[in-house]
Specification:
By secondary structure, the protein is an alpha/beta fold. The protein has 57 helices and 56 strands.
């Protein structure tokens, strides 16, 4: 029963292992224990784990192993028997291969010409011996034991003769195989060894004939050398026909040597895709057709009969595995055989809809269904008598054999699977420790099933999901108390019982079931049997034949006895239910094949002839012909008039419809929001620490959009792409875009896709700096695993998505991001999905808590809105079903039981459309042969173009999934249209996914006029371009593939969709065709419509259309509106099958005269109608009024109704032909008449099959549509029947998590093998999923995403740098005109440079609000700098420019590229970078204490330092020599002080230094050490002591300089011992800001004629080049400070004419620590410390040189730096803004203290409020404030003059200056009274003395004898607003006397 042998042949080498495996399975299947024997599970599970998915595929052509059959061992014991052993041959007999034991030659080559006696009923066959692969052995076998030509009806057992010695009567193949010396090591099987029929050729020689079609060969679909494709079953439509022919109808074999359609045994039926729906048994909705077909063959879905016609009534001699009805557990393992390419298919395959939990899938949980007892004979002519094939669902226990006419029944294991799954319910709770809970009993399961069946209506079909939910609720109910503590109870369907439900015993079961069934009017019939199910089945067949089950839909057969478990089965005998269920077992491909077969073989002709008998006037075709002949002359003339109508009207300059517009590409707010969501997901992938996406390394974007192989979808995507302009925007294409170029970016997933994809992959490899986005649109299409695609090369390849998008190159490429886009993401949300739940983007909902989030001018109508419209209180139901159509289909289904219902439905519907078209054209008697709904559609379609002056009309989509049927429908409707001379009225288009759109020339011309297209060769290529074309679009193909429909779509006729395939994705995508955007002004009309409708109860109950205004021309008094439904009385003929609801329109009316005779009449009627409407009177329009005025705008309808409703003679919705309207309602007829305009204002109306309508519109307790709880996709299955219900309140994210938990892919799904123990590993990091409702605009959203992603990448490669002109450039020294160097000089000349005066003025634009520094000359000409910026503006208002990053830029932590990975410390070879902490101490006299610093030194950087040998103590940092010269390294160590910028600081200097070796030290505060170390693991850190945690940048500069000087001394001492002079040690260090991003050099060309002529260019260079250039300066050690300009785009040549300046340097400086030994940075400073230091250096007589040919760009960084100092109150935590005026207060006052350093408060206060201290100095630039030994910023309105008190210092001559104030800041002992007396002050000038405490304040006043010249008052003392413990600064102010 389980074909394990074959599947394991490639893997498990030892026969012993295989044998044990077989036998243990056997034993476990035979035992009745519920638990499988351990040996079985061990071997089985191990095998499963080691199965290699490819292994079986390698053996596809190996014929020996190919046909290993599964036969049971003869041993009946349940212990595993030993492996098969051949009996020893009798003594003395022959054992030669190819000879029998009697020594006779049996080889075909030897005896082919001999005459061989063959008894009657026997055939000659060829047997294969494993030892003679090249020979066939000839045997004679009774043909009853061989399969017939169709592969059916082989008896079990064997009967054969030896042709060599003539011995007869071998009854066992084992015995026979011994006789002919096959010498087998495994159990002999006839199927494996009897291979070919032998036939005589023309010469009479015996030759090899066709293959014997055993089931094994069929099932595996092996490619045998003699069959043309992987097995014939793939080629035969019939082989899948469920409701197809019986065995009496032979199949046309696809090729003679391979008879097909193998008739299966009952067992085989188990392999019906056990679906999750009884009804839908197939959740195989759209599985690989081949795959399915295989399965169906396997399950003999075709004719699941068993033993053919068993002539002997006794049981077969020997039970054969393949033929006993077996358990689904074997089904699952059997599926292993199905696919030669993937042997690891343990789980249910393809179509199996079963909801097996994983546990159940792994091994058979007992297999009680081994056939037992007498076989049950299926009566002949069952189908003929019953008009349907009963479907038998095996339930519990054993199931008997079926024999006889088994073609006429179908056996399914689906229910058994459901029962078994429900037995394992409690496992879901084991994780909570609730393992004691008992599963639901078998008796209870059966009883609940009966209850369920009893309450089903006559037109309902059982659904497995319903049953599972019932079991689960019942189980929950009975164990409520135990499980409540583990999980909150789901809303219960049953009342809560205080105690568990009393168990049902097997004795009570039949009685309780009978009691339940007694109330259902015999729709459920219970048969109780005492001995076995066989008697019950026999009785059931008897009752069926006798016609006693006519009213019965379900027969439940129960065999319950006290001493053993119950046996049960359920037979579906209802014709409708049986038909739906049997058809649901067909996969889509089989469904197509079955239908095709019925069309090809002419079976449908009976249907056609039946239709022709219906029409009393004779055949419809004759009527049509007659009509055509009669009307030919009349029609052609009037037609030409109507066709020319639009132009005639245009010529007259009157009516032209202005409503036509095809929407061009525009981005809606929703799409932008989604694009931004996508972008933020991409950014979060890039920002994560996993290094999966390095956005910083990409310069541009490229993309490829993959679409399904639908020509229309392909063209539609090209259209969107073209009009979006995205290719130009991304820079991928230049202007003048051609279609061929656009096609490079869209790929159809068809046979040629691989070529395009290969190019894409090559591009991605060749362009590592381009980010490639692979967009997989319509991503739920073809999720077939590549290993499982069994398609021959000729057909459309499946598994392409898996083969291309999941290939290793895509997965591993670091520059490919895959974006799956779909409306139905469920199949990508399984337990094995590749997509992380964090990478899912769901379309946002438009409302949140009632707030409209995005203001859209259109309202989207999707599935939920359609369902909502069917609820009471809504205007017009948009979803409808056609009951008269359904009634006719049902009646015909009973009459033609062998025709597939799709065929019947299609033919009925075509008939309806044909009749409706004839009725509209005047053959009014045909109204009785159509349904009201079809008539409505046809009328509105035909009349639509006549109601618009430009001929715009409606589109009707007629969905016919089956392509052959669609072709038939097209042909038929086309002919009818021709006969009725409507070929210019509307077009009929056959929409085939594989081809483009073909439409008539006349209609192409019309479209060109409407769309103003000049191109002669233009043809519409997408459905969107058919906007306004009146047409019927026959939309074929098993699934829609993403095609969008135009806004003129009015009707979506889905009555022919495959309603048996109930899968959520299938249903929703069919309904998605109708999804639609409607102008949102529509809402205002809703209320009115409701009022009107509710006044018409009959209207509410009918499925009617709101704008059915057809003009039925009767007598003038005939005013009955067609909107009002009438029961047909006169035409209620039985033959029409419309009696259920055959409402005809205006029965008595004469044929409508549709075509007006002339255009003048038309216009006259317009006028007349207009006047009548204006009068507001009740009007009746004359007979001749053409239908131009038929349809008013909907609003008019409503208004007219309100008036006419008062008149008894007028029906509630008067059609426009008899409408009255209020006078104010005059309107322009021609615009409101256009039905296309109207169509675009309301969503289309959708007609569904009744079955689908019921599923869609029924909701569960939470309000969730039933369709949502169906299995989501055909190639996934439920992980367990025990799963919570979905809820309406679930968001998309919660639904995704639900499916991720509760669904698993089947083996045919591409994600099946994506499993690993650690769950996170299975997610692909660069894969995203965008889901949103159909037709909502996902294409526009992802194109917009590409656009903003591209902009962001460009933005990532750009940086905002400060771009400000230097300030104060007009204040120059008097010698400004003198030049000391030539413009082209590379280095300064020391002697010349010494002569250059120092420029005191600050030119750096960042100091725009700093005080001007005066030198003696500038006192007069300074401009008013009063335009000061506010404090907060200081950073935000500075001017920046966006610059593209060069290859020499410095980067922050977000930059990752291959080259600098190791530099950054992310090299995979290293663990997280190891580093060591080293203390380094030195004493500093000024601080009066020892300073202890800490170095964090990564292992990779230790070579820069010297450590003591024994203790590894840090001794010093190595310094090079002045004389060293090397291109490869930078001599000066670089120090970067930083705070608050661990992520954003530009510390990655790898590219800036061009890879050169350099020493870079980050100087960080102690509390930030850990975070900096985390982000920069490979950088050396210098950690400041904790006392500096709140200090400013001055402290860092101070410590850097002191440390460097101390280190210089240490290095000098160390290297002196090596013989190196102290002055040879390199004394420079670089101090760089953390925002220096790029460096530029100016190249000056002085090749002009005159020396003064020069040109210059600026280019980006590496920092290495600049530093090496400066380090090479002659006499470089004589310069104390070297710096460079700050970049500005406005640099003028005057600024660089002098290549070197002696002035302030900032931001990036080289500092000579040796020369500046005695000049310190002020460690207390927060601002302007560099200006302060520059002034000290200059006054000490040292040289400061600025290289004007170099400049540095500084990046604007919005975080950290000075911004990290926040001044807040010390008392409350609430952030209150504190103005700088509050930064100081009077001593001992009650002022609020602030939590900020005193120095910071002082500096900020002086910057903004210094005028309070120096009132005379305000804007008085000629009388500056004298600042001694320091520079403090007193704000831009006050000038200062810096003097140094040090002896021998360089100061400006102050002889001519009088000062307006004096600032003494922490003055030291060098400041003495005599020094101050040199300076002159204005009268009333003010003094400010600042000291550390009040005591030193007084001492200073006394020491400097200040009271001699300055007057002090007590109230003039202040302090910073600090608490005592924060050591405030104190000031004293005074006035000059």
């Amino acid at each position: 029963m389980l074909s394990m042998g074959n599947s394991y042949a490639g893997q498990l080498k030892t026969t012993r292992f295989e044998e044990v495996l077989h036998n243990s399975i056997e034993a476990s299947l035979r035992s009745n224990n519920l638990v499988p024997r351990p040996i079985f599970s061990q071997l089985y599970l191990e095998a499963e784990q080691q199965l290699s998915s490819l292994e079986a595929g390698n053996r596809a052509d190996n014929e020996e192993e190919e046909e290993e059959e599964e036969e049971e061992e003869s041993s009946e014991s349940s212990s595993p028997p030993v492996s098969y052993q051949v009996k020893p041959p009798p003594e003395g007999c022959c054992t030669t291969d190819g000879f029998c034991q009697a020594g006779k030659d049996l080889r075909l080559v030897s005896i082919s010409n001999e005459h061989i006696e063959v008894p009657s009923g026997f055939l000659l066959v060829g047997a294969k011996s494993p030892n003679l692969p090249d020979h066939l052995l000839v045997c004679a076998v009774d043909k009853r034991f061989l399969p017939d030509d169709n592969g059916r009806n082989a008896l079990l057992g064997f009967s054969g003769n030896c042709v060599g010695c003539g011995k007869k009567g071998f009854c066992y193949f084992t015995e026979f195989s011994n006789h002919i010396n096959l010498k087998l090591t495994t159990q002999p099987k006839k199927q494996k060894h009897l291979k070919y029929y032998l036939v005589r050729n023309a010469q009479g020689a015996l030759t090899k004939g066709s293959v014997i079609c055993w089931k094994g060969a069929e099932f595996r679909g092996r490619q045998s050398s003699t069959s043309t494709c992987s097995s014939t079953l793939f080629q035969l439509p019939e082989s899948s026909g469920l409701s197809g022919s019986t065995s009496s109808e032979p199949l046309p074999p696809a090729n003679p040597s391979a008879p097909a359609g193998t008739q299966q045994t009952a067992a085989a039926v188990d392999h019906i895709p056990s679906t999750a729906a009884f009804s839908s048994a197939v959740y195989n909705g759209k599985e690989s057709p081949k795959q399915q077909l295989m399965k169906n063959n396997l399950s003999a879905l075709t004719r699941p009969s068993v033993l053919g016609t068993l002539t002997n009534s006794g049981p077969p001699k020997k039970r054969h595995k393949g033929w006993s009805p077996e358990s689904p557990s074997s089904t699952e393992t059997w599926n292993l055989q199905l696919n030669p390419q993937a042997s690891n298919r343990i789980k249910n395959d393809g179509g199996s809809l079963s909801s097996l939990p994983n546990s159940a899938v792994v091994g058979p949980a007992s297999s009680p269904m081994v056939g037992s007892g007498e076989p049950v004979s299926v009566p002949d002519n069952l189908l003929k008598i019953c008009k349907a094939k009963p479907v038998i669902f095996k339930g519990h226990g054993n199931f008997p054999y079926l024999c006889g006419n088994i073609n006429d029944v179908i056996v399914s294991p689906l229910l058994y699977t459901c029962y078994r799954n429900s037995q394992s319910l409690s496992r879901a709770y084991e994780q909570y420790g609730a393992s004691t809970i008992q599963p639901i009993s078998e008796e209870m399961q059966l009883l609940l099933t009966v209850y369920y069946l009893v309450q089903l209506a006559a037109d309902q079909v059982p659904l497995i999901e319903d049953l599972e939910q019932i079991f689960m609720r019942s189980w929950r109910e009975s164990h409520l108390s135990e499980i409540r503590q583990y999980q909150q109870a789901v809303p219960q369907a049953f009342p809560q019982l205080p105690s568990p439900i009393t168990p049902v015993t097997s004795a009570q079961l039949p009685w309780l079931a009978g009691l339940a069934a007694s109330s259902c009017n015999d729709s459920v019939h219970i048969i109780e049997c005492s001995y076995s199910l066989a008697e019950g089945l026999s009785e059931m067949f008897k009752l069926l034949i006798e016609g006693k089950l006519i009213k019965t839909n379900y027969v439940v057969i129960i065999c319950a006895s006290r001493n053993r478990a119950i046996d049960s089965c359920i037979v579906i005998t209802g014709k409708y239910q049986a038909r739906v269920l049997s058809e649901s077992m067909l996969s889509p491909s089989d469904y197509q094949k079955e239908v095709n077969y019925q069309l090809v073989t002419g079976k449908v002709e009976t249907l056609g002839s039946f239709f022709s008998t219906l029409c009393p006037e004779g055949d419809i075709d004759l009527l049509l012909e007659k009509f055509y002949q009669e009307n030919q002359g009349h029609i052609s003339s009037s037609l030409s008039a109507s066709v020319n109508k639009p132009t005639a009207v245009n010529g007259a300059g009157t009516a032209v419809c202005t409503s036509y517009e095809i929407e061009r590409h525009q981005i809606r707010p929703f799409q932008l929001a989604v694009a931004q969501k996508l972008l933020s997901h991409i950014c979060s992938i890039a920002d994560s620490s996993t290094q999966n996406l390095d956005l910083g390394s990409f310069e541009k974007i490229d993309f490829l959009i993959c679409v399904p192989p639908s020509e229309v979808t392909y063209q539609q995507t090209l259209f969107h792409l073209w009009h979006s302009g995205i290719l130009l925007e991304l820079g991928l294409e230049k202007e003048h875009l051609t279609k061929q170029r656009v096609e490079q970016y869209v790929m159809k997933l068809d046979a040629e896709a691989q070529i395009k994809f290969k190019i894409f992959l090559q591009n991605s490899m060749q362009n590592p700096h381009t980010l490639f986005v692979l967009i997989h649109d319509h991503a739920h299409w073809d999720l077939m695993s590549a290993m499982h695609s069994l398609y021959p090369q000729t057909e459309l390849p499946s598994g392409l998505v898996d083969r291309l998008l999941n290939c290793r190159e895509v997965k591993e490429a670091p520059n490919i991001v895959t974006l799956h886009v779909t409306s139905f993401p469920y199949a990508l949300q399984t337990q094995h999905t590749h997509i992380s739940p964090y990478n899912e983007i769901h379309w946002p909902s438009s409302y949140s808590n009632g707030v409209d989030l995005y203001h859209e001018n259109k309202k989207y109508f999707g599935l939920s809105e359609f369902i909502e419209s069917t609820l009471s209180g809504h205007s017009i139901p948009l979803l409808r079903y056609d009951s008269s159509f359904e009634a006719m289909v049902m009646a015909l289904g009973k009459r033609f039981p062998r025709l597939h219902s799709a065929v019947i439905r299609t033919f009925v519907l075509i008939q309806h459309y044909s009749a409706a078209m004839m009725a509209v054209c005047g053959l009014s008697q045909m109204k009785n042969y159509t349904s009201v709904e079809t008539l409505e559609i046809t009328q509105n379609l035909i009349n639509s173009s006549r109601q618009c002056p430009s001929g715009h009309g409606l589109m009707v989509v007629l969905r016919i999934p089956c392509i052959p049927l669609a072709a038939v429908a097209y042909e038929r409707l086309y002919n009818v249209r021709e006969r009725l001379a409507l070929e210019d009225n509307f077009e009929i288009i056959l929409g085939n996914p594989n081809s483009g759109i073909t439409i008539g020339k006349h209609f192409v011309e019309q479209l060109k006029i409407w769309q103003k297209i000049e191109d002669v060769d233009w043809r519409p290529q997408t459905y969107l371009e058919l906007e306004g074309l009146p047409c019927i679009l026959i939309f074929s193909g098993m699934d829609p593939q993403g095609e969008s429909l135009p806004r003129s779509l009015r009707y979506c006729d889905l009555r022919l969709i495959n309603s048996s395939s109930l899968v959520r994705t299938s249903l929703e995508q069919e309904l998605g065709l109708a999804a639609y955007f409607v102008s949102s002004e529509l809402h205002t009309e809703k209320a009115v419509v409701n009022d009107v409708l509710e006044s018409d109860p009959e209207k509410l109950s009918s499925t009617d259309n709101e704008d059915e205004e057809i003009v039925t021309e009767g007598s003038a008094s005939e005013k009955r509106s067609p909107m009002k439904r009438e029961r047909s009385r006169s035409h209620d003929s039985a033959s029409s099958s419309l009696s259920s609801k055959a409402s005809t329109f205006c029965t008595e009316s004469s044929p409508p005269q549709v075509l007006s005779n002339s255009t003048e009449e038309t216009t006259n009627n317009y006028e007349r109608q207009k006047q009548k409407v204006d009068k507001g009177a009740q009007t009746t329009v004359s007979k001749h009024l053409p239908p131009v005025t038929e349809q008013l705008d909907m609003k008019q309808n409503i208004r007219s109704t309100q008036v006419s409703i008062t008149s008894s003679s007028s029906p509630p919705f008067s059609s426009s032909s008899s409408s009255s309207a209020p006078a104010h309602n005059s309107f322009i007829l021609q615009t409101s008449q256009c039905s296309m305009t109207k169509a675009s204002k309301q969503p289309p109306i959708v007609f569904l099959p009744k079955l689908v309508y019921d599923i869609i519109t029924s909701t569960d307790s939470s309000g969730l549509p039933k369709s949502s709880s169906l299995l989501p996709y055909h190639s996934v299955m439920w992980a367990s029947s025990f799963r919570p219900l979905m809820s309406k309140m679930m968001t998309c994210t919660e639904q995704s998590l639900y499916y991720r938990q509760w669904t698993v892919p089947k083996p045919i799904h591409m994600d099946y093998n994506n499993r690993s123990e650690g769950r996170m590993d299975t997610f692909h990091p660069r894969r995203l999923l965008l889901s949103g409702p159909p037709q909502i605009g996902k294409t526009g959203a992802y194109l917009q995403f590409l656009s903003i992603l591209s902009r962001m990448l460009i933005r990532l490669t750009e940086v905002d740098v400060y771009d400000e002109e230097e300030i104060n450039i007009n204040i120059k020294e008097e010698e400004a005109d003198q030049y000391y160097h030539q413009p082209g000089d590379m280095w300064p000349d020391l002697e010349s440079f010494k002569k250059m005066p120092f420029d005191y003025t600050i030119h750096d634009p960042k100091y725009e609000d700093a005080s001007l520094i005066c030198s003696k000359i500038q006192t007069t000409n300074s401009e008013d700098k009063s335009k000061s910026r506010r404090q907060e503006d200081m950073y935000t208002c500075r001017q920046t420019t966006r610059m593209r990053l060069s290859k020499y830029a410095a980067y922050n932590t977000y930059h990752h590229c291959e080259q600098c990975h190791q530099y950054m410390g992310f090299n995979p070879r290293y663990q997280i970078y190891e580093s060591t902490l080293h203390a380094f101490a030195f004493s500093y006299s000024m601080l009066g204490e020892e300073i202890q610093l800490h170095f964090i030194i990564p292992k990779s950087k230790e070579h820069h330092f010297v450590f003591s040998q024994p203790g590894r103590q840090l001794e010093s940092m190595r310094l090079p020599l002045v004389t060293d010269k090397s291109e490869d390294y930078i001599k000066s160590p670089t120090f970067t002080p930083t705070t608050g910028r661990h992520e954003h600081g530009l510390f990655n200097l790898y590219h800036a230094m061009d890879g050169a070796s350099h020493l870079h030290v980050l100087v960080v505060k102690e509390y930030e050490m850990a975070i900096y170390k985390k982000y920069w693991p490979n950088h050396i850190m210098l950690v400041l002591p904790s006392i500096f945690n709140s200090a400013g940048v001055g402290a860092a500069h101070f410590l850097i300089k002191e440390l460097s000087y101390h280190n210089l001394e240490l290095e000098r001492n160390r290297q002196e011992e090596l013989g190196i002079k102290p002055q040879d040690i390199w004394p420079f260090i670089v101090i760089s800001d953390d925002s220096c991003v790029m460096w530029n050099a100016v190249e000056v060309d002085c090749s002009g004629d005159r020396k003064s002529d020069y040109t210059w260019t600026e280019r980006n260079v590496s920092l290495k080049q600049i530093l090496q250039h400066i380090e090479a300066t002659p006499n470089v050690t004589h310069y104390a400070l070297i710096g460079m300009r700050k970049w500005s785009s406005k640099t003028n040549s005057a600024e660089i004419k002098e290549p070197f300046s002696c002035c302030h340097v900032h931001d990036f400086i080289m500092l000579n620590v040796d020369l500046t030994q005695n000049v310190q940075y002020n460690q207390n400073r927060f601002t302007c410390d560099d200006v302060d230091f520059n002034l000290r250096v200059h006054s000490a007589g040292l040289l400061i040189c600025r290289f004007n040919h170099f400049n540095v760009m500084k990046k604007q960084i919005a975080v950290g730096g000075q911004r990290s100092f926040h001044i807040k109150s010390k008392v409350s935590d609430t952030p209150v803004s504190i103005s700088p005026a509050q930064y100081i207060c009077a001593p001992d006052s009650k002022h609020t203290f602030l939590a900020a350093p005193a120095q910071l408060l002082l500096e900020k206060y002086l910057q903004y409020h210094s005028h309070r201290f120096f009132p005379l100095s305000l804007k008085n630039y000629s009388h500056p404030v004298l600042s001694v030994d320091c520079y403090l910023n007193l704000g831009p309105q006050i000038a200062v003059c810096y003097v140094s008190s040090r002896p021998h210092s360089l100061n400006i001559s102050s002889s001519g200056l009088t000062f307006s104030g004096l600032l003494l800041y922490l003055c030291d002992s060098f400041v003495v009274a005599s020094f101050l007396k040199k300076f002159h002050f204005l009268k009333g000038a003010t003094l400010c003395v600042i000291c550390q405490d009040r005591n030193s304040l007084r001492q200073t006043v006394v020491r400097l004898e200040l009271e001699d010249e300055w007057q002090f008052r007590l109230r003039d003392e202040f302090q910073t607003a600090n608490a005592k413990e924060d050591r405030p600064l104190f000031f004293l102010t005074g006035r000059h006397i």
